[in-house]
Amino acid sequence: MRRYLIVCAAILTCLSFTFIKKQQHPKLVVLIAIDGLRGDLVDKYKPAFTGGFKRLYDEGFVFTNAWDDHAITVSHAGHETLATGNYPKNHGIVDAAFYEQSGDTLRFTDAFADSNYTLTGYPDTKSISTKKVLTAGLAEWVKQKDASAKVLCVGTGNISSALYCAHPNDNVFWYSDDLGQYVSSTYFMQQYPAWVQQFNTEQVPQYLKKYTRWDNAIPQQFLRLCDEDSAAFENYGQKHVFPYIASQRAKDSFMHYWIRNTPYCDDATIKFAQQGITSMQMGQTTTTDYVSIVLSQVDNTAHSFGPTSLEVFNVLYQLDRSLGDFFSYLDDKVGKGNYVVALSADHGFAAIPEQTAAKGQFAKRLVQDDIEKVLDTVRKTVRIHKGESRDAVAEGLKKLLLQYDFIADVYTPAQLNNPNNSGDEYLELYKKSHRPDRVPRLPYFSLDYFQSPIAKAGVMVRLKPGCMIDLDCVIHGSPYEYDRYVPLLFMGAGVTKGTSAQKVKTIDVAPTLAKLADIQAAKTVDGKALF
Predict the structure, then answer these.
(1) Pair type for strands 244-245 and 213-214
(2) CA–centroid distance for 490 within its chain
(3) Is 230 a residue whose pLDDT tops 90?
(4) Under a CB-based contact definition with an 8 Å cutoff, are residues 29 and 513 in contact?
(5) What is the structure's pLDDT at 16?
(6) What is the pTM of this model?
(7) pLDDT tens digit string along 62-89?
(8) What SS3 state is found at 105?
(9) SS3 assignment, position 259
């Protein structure tokens, strides 16, 4: 009997240890945002993947029905939503630039530019702050739980990483294609850590020297998954077929820009994150640390070649390998089971208008001359209603703008500020991208001076599907499914392999990671934990 009790006690001890081990919270939380990755693309190209994307599908939990739940689907708004779990109307970054209340008028302002701060190490170059962000996010929640927690936010795109950390004095870096270095703002730091300087002087030059040619890497058997490389509507009909080659006589300044337009800059950003994790000894204590990584080359390439192009497929194919290496690095450095990863996107992408029109569907590229003519009539209408109430001006603009065949609807301040549910799906999405004191510039503004008398009047417009201003070969920013559909995958500590078709939103990402890491999300968060 005594032997039986001893055996039972031993078994219970093992079970207890196992239970406690399973309940341990991750030492490192990793949020990966792939700028511009439409929700169908990872699944579309899944047969070709052997690295990180494959591992996320094989080991992680995949939400196949994930969406931006706001109308103005631009990078700034989308990234801030992922970072905070709030709608743009609440975190405040409704657009990259918007009209902000100033006295009795709305004044045009950039979301992050701040002349009080300079690029760290470059006192003559103005930089940014995150003072206009109105809510705290995952980076702040981690620090609130434990002030000793380490935070690292890195990004390929200009200031992209700053969208994930509104807290001064944290490690926030992004790649500058002007300088060919990873940089920051004096809002975050006065000087660079030694590991950043080392990476900039040793690793970045190797990328610039090695990757002077971009060849198609997609195996023949997978080429059927994307558009043909010879699609004439890509890149405005300019160079749009592989290979892409940098001139051997190219100056360093050109190479800084060149590498930013290949898949290799995202790989450099991931390696930069790895060096930061190692140097900062992240994930090495009982404290939960936080890393965000913004990878921007899908967005950069899709703007020129379209989301289903061979070029974007190549970016994802390279990124699959880079992410695979990164996850293996985390296994070795932090320990498998000691970290949790979420991967999503800030927005999706439309097809190139000419590509849509070639399929017999309505689409329209709104060119500069035509835009200016419309905006001239807008200014005249505003002058006609001068001295009247804002609502009267808005109603006059609505009547005018609805005459154009590319405009689906017009929303006045009275509609946008009404707290009651209108029953109009699109109007409700626009409300989430609008504040009474901040009105987005998109989707219709001058390509000459990049402002909008429509937004200045407090009015928002919805263009018809497939219609967009000629800002790039193709842009995003609409409330339609192609711009709002995004991927969402989790892997690691606390995550069981599985798939769900449940409709989820990007506001759910930050609170889900917080719960997995036993971190208290802000009470004002709009999203919810999915596990």
Answers:
(1) antiparallel
(2) 17
(3) no
(4) yes
(5) 35
(6) 0.94
(7) 999 999 999 999 999 999 999 999 999 9
(8) strand
(9) helix
Tokens 């390509």 belong to 447
How far is residue 155's CA from residue 185's CA, in Å, rounded to a whole number? Answer: 13
pLDDT at position 21 is 37
> What are the tokens at 433?
């991208």
Buried b (16+ CB within 10 A) or exposed e, 235-259: beeeebebebebeeeeeeeebbebb
Q: Phi and psi (nearest 5°) for 30?
A: -125, 120
Gyration radius from the chain CA atoms: 24
Helix (H) or strand (E) holding 53: helix 52-59
Question: 150 near 28, Cβ under 8 Å?
Answer: no
Token pair in block for residue 494: 């606390």
CA distances from 426 to 66, 214, 397 (A): 17, 41, 19
Tokens 């599907």 found at: 465
Measured between alpha carbons, how far is 432 from 143 in angstroms, rounded to an integer? Answer: 28
- Whether 434 has a pLDDT exceeding 90, the answer reads yes
Q: What share of the chain is helix, strand, coil (3-state, %, to 5)?
A: 40, 20, 40
Residues near 304 by beta carbon (within 8 Å), at least 6 away in sequence = 234, 235, 311, 472, 473
Pairing of strands 61-67, 485-492: antiparallel
What is the DSSP-derived secondary structure letter of residue 156?
Answer: S
Residue 253 has pLDDT above 70, yes or no: yes
Q: Which residues lie below 8 Å from residue 269, measured CB to CB, with a gap of 6+?
A: 154, 155, 156, 175, 182, 293, 294, 295
* pLDDT of amino acid 19: 33
Burial label, 523 (beta-carbon count in 10 A; 0-12, 13-18, 19+):
exposed
Q: Tokens 């999915």: give the residue.
A: 530
What is the band of 100 on the pLDDT scale with cuts at 50, 70, 90?
very high
Burial of 280 (0-12, 13-18, 19+ CB in 10 A): middle
